[in-house]
Amino acid sequence: MTTKRFFTMMASILLLSATVSAAQRPRPAAVAPQQHGVMAPHKDYCRPAAQPRNDMSRRVAIALDYLARHATIDARLYARLTGLGIRQAESELRSMARDARIPIVTACRQHGLYCLAFR
């Protein structure tokens, strides 16, 4: 028997024994499908949780704080900061501009921009 034939025969025996031993091994039990529970909705970290709708003083403070650091604010940005809808944010900004006790005035009516009165 030649060396080449010997190694070919040994490789065949090893391959056959590996196949037979793999066939005799018990297969793992099938994993039962998991029940899909109700998932919580994705939390949007860019938008804060909605503030209570009757907490106007807190929303005015948010607007004043923003305007102290930036020049103007519009309804979309105010809605994002406070968690209100855009229509309600527009209405609230208009009422703030009309209120003499709040130092917010209309900067550009056409674009819906508001600024601080003393800027």
Commentary on this structure:
This protein is mostly helical and 119 residues long. Helix content is 48%, strand content 8%. The protein is built from 4 helices and 2 strands. The chain has helices at 3-24, 56-69, 75-82, 86-98; strands at residues 104-108, 113-116. It has a two-stranded antiparallel ribbon with strand order 1-2. Strand 1 and strand 2 (113-116) form a beta hairpin. Helix 3 (75-82) crosses helix 4. The longest helix is centred in the N-terminal third of the chain and has 22 residues, at 3-24. The radius of gyration is 35 Å and the shape is rod-shaped.
Unreliable runs? none
In round numbers, the mean pLDDT is: 79
Number of helices: 4
How does the overall form come out from the CA principal axes?
rod-shaped
Bin the helical content: 40-55%
Number of strands: 2
* Biggest beta sheet attributes: 2 strands, antiparallel
Features:
mainly alpha, rod-shaped, about 50% helix, about 120 residues, 2 strands, two-stranded antiparallel sheet
